Amino acid sequence: MPVNNPIAGLNKIFDNRIRLGVMSAVVVNEEMSFNDLKQLLEVTDGNLATHLQTLEEAGFLKVHKGFVGRKTNTTYSITKAGEKAFKDHLGGLEKMIRGMK
Questions:
Q1: Which one, out of 15, 50, 59, 100, has a CA that is 20 to 30 A from the CA of 22?
Q2: Cα(101)–Cα(88) distance, integer angstroms
Q3: Are the C-beta atoms of residues 77 and 26 closer than 8 Å to each other?
């Protein structure tokens, strides 16, 4: 009897818990600032920046650079491709979990 691969529907980009946390945050918020993501996920600047760059290069995040007063402000929002990929990933997780029951 053939067995279905339980991880076949998962997107490797979301394997990392920080990228998963970023996507979870931006999918429910119109946009989030770098500092808000850093505080929410309790990560260092360098660590967050690396994972944000990975998500941006995959086409899953849009970056907006601007100013609030005299301070730079970088915000991130999800792209249509990111939204689809993340929903597909969540569907793959759900399918995997249901298959384990």
A1: 100
A2: 21
A3: yes
Contacts with 31 (C-beta within 8 Å, 6 or more apart), sequence order: 64, 75, 76, 77
Residue 11's Cα: distance from chain center in Å?
A: 11
Which stretches of the chain drop beneath a pLDDT of 70?
1-3, 101
What's the confidence (pLDDT) of residue 7? 86
Q: How far apart are CA 31 and CA 42, in angstroms?
A: 18
Q: Please report how the helices 17-28 and 45-57 are oriented relative to each other, as an axis angle in degrees rounded to 10.
A: 70
In sequence order, the 6+-apart residues with CB closer than 8 A to the CB of 54 are 13, 19
Tens digit of each residue's pLDDT (9 = 90 or more) over 56-79: 999 999 999 999 899 999 999 999
Strand partners, 64: 75
